[in-house]
Design brief:
A hairpin with a 5-residue loop joins β9 and β10. Among the domains are: 111 residues, no CATH class; 66 residues, no CATH class. It has a 6-stranded mixed beta sheet with strand order 1-4-5-8-10-9, sandwiched between helices. By secondary structure, the chain is an alpha+beta fold. The relative contact order is 0.09. The protein has 12 helices and 10 strands.
Length: 323
Amino acid sequence: MDNTNKTLPKTRDLSFDKIIKRLLEDKRTAILFISGVFLEQLPMDADVVWLDKETIDAEGKMRVADEYIQIGGRLYGIEFEQDDETDISMKLFSYSHRGAMRYSTTTERGTTVIEYPHVRVIFLKSAASTPNELKWVYIFPGGQSVTETVPVIKLEDLTVDEIKERHLMPIGQFKPRTYEPLNERNIDEFRATVTELLDALKESVADGSITLDDALEMQDNIKAQIENAIARTKMEVDQIMVTSIKETFPWTDYRELFSELRAEGRAEGRAEGEANRDIAIARSMFRDADSSPELIIKLLKAAGVSDEIIKEAQNQERTGGAE
């Protein structure tokens, strides 16, 4: 097939770690995500502290980790890697040590206690050389040694069901990228995975684990990855066939979904219950501090939400009132 004269579209830039870290600024999302990463059941009412990710030394600021967070008094550190890195073990150890020295070291009467954080490295894209685990071996004078094993999470190895069940959609939204470059051997699996991912995203909105505004952003990121995959596709795949892929996926109009959720409330025949449901949904939309309140208000009004409901949702979200 001659594709010589075909022009590939430009790719869209995605700042993966920034997108993920912004999502984790929400308390509920952070607790669910950390629980899924570390396979723990953290209480949803646990105190959450987002710690500074930089420490200052003689040479200036140095990073602690991509995400450094304290939940219920326990420290967690996560490093997101866009690609395989040969020095990841040393880099993650360095981040972990700096974080421990800064946030969880105590000294009393000549005894110093250093408590290291729970850490994970997440590879958004991996290769055959990507390690399945990291090992740190501490050797002390006198021959005493301690070995710590750090589990590695590879997005490529996670199924869509695992992503949804473990509330890992902040990283799961980037799974389409793991199929690049597209070719005749993986294009069918790529189609199936993206379809499953979009369905899982919609289900996560319906069960309340992901807010509508976050879903809007995630779906847009998935679209961007499809466009990027098309742009980087090898010539062995028919360009016309690949370009048409985006139109075949089950995209969701989340504004329409909002209306559907409201309709469910109406079906119950309880005006008070309907109003409370609208307030809860509106609050979830306002909860994302990076979204424009003006834009959210426009979306709510477009979905038929009254000014009174919008004002009450804003007031409850601001004061932390009953939900």
